[in-house]
Amino acid sequence: MLKQIPERITYAQKKIIKLTEERKLRKWCLDNGLQHSAIYRIGIGEQVPTYKIVCSMVHLIPAVEWLYYTDEKLPFKPVLVPAWNPKNKCKFIKEHRYDYKEVGKKYGISELSAYNICVVSRAQPSLAFIRECCKDTNPIDFFIDGEESETPKKFSPDRGDIVNIQGNIVLVLSKKDDIESTGHLICSPVLPKCEHSIALSATKTKGVVCARNLRTFVLAPRCQASFIESVPDEMVNAVLDEAREILK
Questions:
Q1: Which of 12, 22, 61, 150 is the most buried (most CB within 10 A)?
Q2: 3-class SS at 177?
Q3: CA angle 238, 243, 245 (to 5 degrees)
Q4: Which ranges of the chain would DSSP assign to H, the alpha helix?
Q5: pLDDT digit string (tens) for 183-241?
């Protein structure tokens, strides 16, 4: 017997409830490798569906039907796609890897959350976030593959730039001409804290520059720098002075 059902349910919940009422849910779950108890709880609103769960069911229930209630009009045509591995980078994530800050501002999540979702894959998008993105994006873009976006070709890092290189936030110490001629970029990492560090100030980026921890990246098609912001000259000079200490 069904427990009390919420007044508002999504199109996906409606389908799960119908299967339950017809006593077909258990077999449906077994046939599709799904956990019956979890799907049942999602159907009656006792459990919130996660991105991982929706990924496992997008070949059975269209993604958009998880995001909208039955008293709402669907903004996109319901489309089934192959089950998606949530560990893979989907089309939306690939397209917004380098503009995560704008994604955060536009869709109402923190800059850190956008960074964790779009850049370093430390977090998965919530269904609430995906629904916000439906203002501009078909939700299936979160469950299909896409082309890896590239850093704008016109951008070339210069000394004093804070950039993102493959998920590493660093302060560039090399001059632009040297980077372009050699393809090598010398930098210091930006971290929450470390020894022999210089605190960032007058910047949106928070943390410290590990001045004596020098790193080198070879820029290539698969290793590009994405601009975040520039720091004041005084700070760059202070970092360079600290870095020179290890070169004496």
A1: 12
A2: helix
A3: 105
A4: 11-21, 25-31, 36-43, 51-55, 91-95, 100-107, 111-118, 127-133, 176-182, 233-245
A5: 899 999 999 988 878 999 888 888 999 988 999 998 876 677 888 888 999 999 999 99
